[in-house]
Amino acid sequence: MEEQASGFDDHALAPMVSLELNVAMFKSQWQFCDRITEYLSDILGQSHSDPARYSNFLSVAANELIELAFRSTGEPGRISFSLYRSATFNRLRIAFAREDRESTGIRSTERPSLAGAGSDLKSDGTILLRELATIFRAAIRIEQDGAHGMQIIADFPSTEDFQ
Does the pTM of the predicted model rise above 0.85? Predict the structure, then answer.
């Protein structure tokens, strides 16, 4: 899961959708995680031979990543959810301002990892994300975005033969 997401250059991918919210609004209701997951998963399912199956399967991983962002965001600020597509994979990118460096465990010179993503991310959460990456054959990483930002990037194969 710490592996490189497939060429982070989003410009090489076709943008599908981008959704930006005020963090305070996003964090005002836990149910927003489910609603955003459903919306993004439905879009990811488009143009597949079995759109419902593909979107339902990927919604499990997307929901975990969105909930991670929910727990890791600080206020005030904005959070954005973006989907991109290439011939071989679909990318979900979640970008937000993170909590202060003390709560994330990230020093200014460190590259964030899943283990240091946020104070609410316990070791069992890290294991769950690693298992999701394995199940979905996905490359998932968390990285610093500027001085105070964080990005969760997940590349999911566009094939439907999940095992």
Answer: no
